[in-house]
Structures are given as structure tokens and as C-alpha cells.
Amino acid sequence: MDSAVPDALVRMVGITKNYAGVAALKGVDLDLRAGEVHCLIGENGAGKSTLTRILTGAEQPTQGTIEVAGHTHNELRPAAAHELGISAIYQETDLVPDLTVWQNMYLGHEPRTRYGTLDRRGMRRSARHVLDDLGVGLAVDLRVADLSAANAQLVQIAKALTRENRVLIMDEPSAVLSDHELSGLFGIIRTLCDRGIGIIYISHRLDEVIQLGDRVTVLRDGRGVETTEVRDTSIPAMIRSMVGRDLTDQFGKVPAARETVALSVRGLTAAGRFQDVSFDVRHGEILGIAGLVGAGRSSLLSGIFGDLSPDDGEVAVEGQRLAGGSARAGIAHGIGLVPEDRRGAGLVLGRSVQDNVTLPSIDSLSWGPFLRPGAMRRVTRRFIDDFAIRTPSPAQPVRFLSGGNQQKVVLAKWLARGVSVLLLDEPTVGVDVGAKSEIYALMNRLAEDGVAIVMVSSDLPEVLGMSDRVIVMSEGRVTAELSRNEATQEAIMEAAVPTSAAVA
Ligand SMILES: Nc1ncnc2c1ncn2[C@@H]1O[C@H](COP(=O)(O)OP(=O)(O)OP(=O)(O)O)[C@@H](O)[C@H]1O
Ligand SMILES: [Mg+2]
């Protein structure tokens, strides 16, 4: 070993990465020790994902070196990175939807029987074992297409664990996990560390950094600002070095609820997903929907919007009943939905930022058959500024934006349209602290304009900070309705945990 730091598994030195028109990384240093959790934080577009993609060989650096196990490389190719025991769980899942859980877990490195055939039984059995180890009660024969975002994420983690790893990169693994699943994940991470694996953990949730991390590196604008021991830092200090200033009163909640009902939902039922859900949302009101992942919250939003056709019940906007099961009816009645799976449902990845922002509002931005390019540019510009969307230009394909910035584009898309009821599914997942405040400010502004907002969120501080009223769901049913004063972390958790699980 000729490494200067004897226990460093990996040392990245002076890493620079230029894309056409974008300097994503500007001379970043990062080292990873055996058995540590090294957190990587920074605002959307700071370069976190790019840095880790260079380590897995998915991208090649423009400059800099990567030292692994005493050897220095100018770049790594994916096969070489695998060989060196470097695995990653990316922000966007790379599972094959049509294959089963176990097939996905062993895709590309399927074990063989001694007759040279695929060892299906072995794979199913070990897949089961890895998932059990993770505390995930998921049938290995399910198709990935049928899994919730959270479960798909867990399968990704399980997939990475089927290999012999030395370095494991997790790019926002917690984004779609509930508290319960998260503590399971943390348990696994600690076990892996005890085995000497080094983990690079990217997250926008700074409490996780405090809870889990040994060291933390802050990136800002493609530069490494600092690397510190987690025990020597604090959340405010991390925020300061990420955004270069202090942030106070993140939510800035402004009560704006009026008397008139904007959205009313009665006895809405979709077999196996949610049962007999009823509530009203007034103009200017923000209704939070809390619950564990899998409680039926996202399906409920689809049921209201019309993506999913309910078996029973009614949805009415401004007293007008919607024809069930048609998203077009939802849109026509002024309902907007920002889905949880933005890459799948929210965006056209190959199209520009401007196209994505303005497509759903094309009617209001054209004049008869003519588009109004000036108006489209102005609207896009406004959202790019308002949300601090980091893009070299409005013409940049959304595919090339960082995860959090793609997220902001989805929000802008619906807000540009002007809706009277806005359904938000995990609106700030993957969004950095600064942009989170921007999104909250925007929700407040919309509420003041009379928009009724329904927000599904697994982020309890966010639910408590932003909601006028909170509904809790468990196993497809509403188990509690709490006023802003009654809503506490404890009250929500109590109603969220399924009674069957409490007994077990
Ligand atoms: N293939 C690409 N082509 C052009 N620009 C790119 C490409 N990939 C990334 N970028 C740009 O590089 C910068 C860093 O992106 P990166 O995805 O590393 O950010 P991040 O820190 O992971 O952000 P987030 O928290 O939003 O996930 C961004 O400005 C992004 O738009
Ligand atoms: Mg990223």
C-alpha cells in the first residue's frame, strides 16, 4: 500500500468534471475510510451525484485522480469499479420494471448451478435472505413495476447488497422511505460499516447526517467547501456552509383558509388501495395527509385526480362532480397533481426545461393556434428564478438537470398552469434546504390566492409546519383527522401505525 492515509479505501483528488456549458465539479477532494459513513451534502446541482458517478465509472473525470486499494487511476470504467467492489444506489432507480424482485437483484451477475444453468432456486432463496436481513417483508416474485417507489428503493438497496462490496454509495436512499423503513436502513448501514465497508451517503435531510454520519463533506457550486467530523458540526453550521448564509423560519406558515369548500371527497374507494375516504378542503387551506409509506396516500391522490378510477365515491370541485376516473376531467376542473414519481409521470426527460414548464399550460400561452414564445419564455424565466432552478438555459433538456432541479421543474409545470386545487405528493423530496423554503413560500402564496392544497408527505416537520389540518391514513383508511393545534408528532404516529402491526 502506498496510500498516505493507511485506512483510506478510496481517495479522489482534484476531481474536475466539465459538461458542455456546465462545470459540474471544480477540483474536489474526497477520501473514504473503511467502516465509515461519509455524508455528502450540498444544494441541488452542487455536484454530489456527479462526484459519485465518477467513482462508479458511470462518468469519467475531466481531470483528477482516483486512488483505490493503493492504485491510482485517471478514470474508472464501470467494470473496473465493480471489480474493485464499488457499488451504488442511484437517485433514480435502474431496476427493470418487467422483471421480478429476485431477477432484478441478480441481474448481470446471476449465479449458475454446477450444470451451468441459471440457479433460479438459489437466487430466489438468497434474494429472500437479503431482504429478510434488511427487514423488508416483500415477496421476491413480485414484478418491480407493481412496487411502490419506497419498495423499489429497498429492492435497489438489496440488489447492491448481493455483491461483495468495499464501497457503497447511496444517493438519497431515504428520499422515499418512511421513518420506520429508514430506521431499518440505518440498522443495515451500521452492520455494513461493522464489516468494514465504507459508505458515501448523500442526503438533503441533515438530521440523518447527524444521526448516521462519521464525517461530512459539503459541496457548493462544484467545489468542496469543507470536510469535518460530524460530531464537530451542527445542522445550522452545515446549512451555512451549504448555502453560504443562515436560514430561519423555514415554513413561514400563513393561515389563509377561507369558508368556501374547494374540493370535496366523499366515500372514495378503490379496492385494495383506499377505502371510504371523505374530507373537504377549503379555499386557501393546506390539508396534510400523513401516514406510513404504503398507507394508500399516493393512490388516493391519483383517485382524486382521475388517473386511477375509483370503485365508489365522489369527487367534487367547487360543488361540481367530476366524472370518475379521467385525469382529463381533473385537469378541466382545475386540479393539478405533482406525483411522487417525477421521472416517470412528471416530466418529459428529453424535452427542454421550457417545454416541460409550459406544456400543460399551452392553452393559456397560445393565441388561437399560435404559440406565444415571448410569454412562454417569460413564464419559464420566472420559475427558474423563483425556484433557483440550476440550468445553463431554459433550452437545456431536463434529463441533464440534477435530481432536485428536475423536481422543481415538475412543480413549476403545474403552478404555471394556474390550478384551483393542487395535489402534492412528497413535494420536497430531494430538494435542498434553500429550495425547500422557496417551495413553502410558494405554497403559502398559492394558499393566499385561494388555492386548496392537499399535501402527502412523510416528512413530519413539514406536515406539522405547513398544514392547517392533518389527515392520517393507515392501511387505506383515514384513522385520524387533526386540527393544526392537535397535530403533534406523537398523535400522527399513533394513528399511522397499523393496528395489526402494533399487535404483531
Ligand atoms: N449529463 C449532463 N450534461 C450536462 N450537465 C449535467 C449532466 N449531468 C449533470 N449535469 C449538471 O452538473 C451539475 C451537478 O449535478 P449533480 O447531479 O451532480 O448535482 P447534485 O448535487 O447531485 O444535485 P441534487 O441534490 O439536485 O441531486 C448540475 O448543474 C447538473 O445540471
Ligand atoms: Mg443528485
From TrEMBL:
Q: Which Gene3D superfamilies match?
A: P-loop containing nucleotide triphosphate hydrolases
**What are the residue boundaries of the ABC transporter domain, all occurrences included?**
10-246, 258-500
Q: Does the keyword Heme apply?
A: no
Q: Keywords in UniProt for this one?
A: ATP-binding, Nucleotide-binding, Repeat, Transport
* Alphabetical list of InterPro entries matching this protein: AAA+_ATPase, ABC_carbohydrate_import_ATPase, ABC_transporter-like_ATP-bd, ABC_transporter-like_CS, P-loop_NTPase
From the UniProt record, which GO molecular function terms apply?
A: ATP binding
Name the chain's protein: Sugar ABC transporter ATP-binding protein
Q: What is the lineage of its organism?
A: Bacteria, Bacillati, Actinomycetota, Actinomycetes, Micrococcales
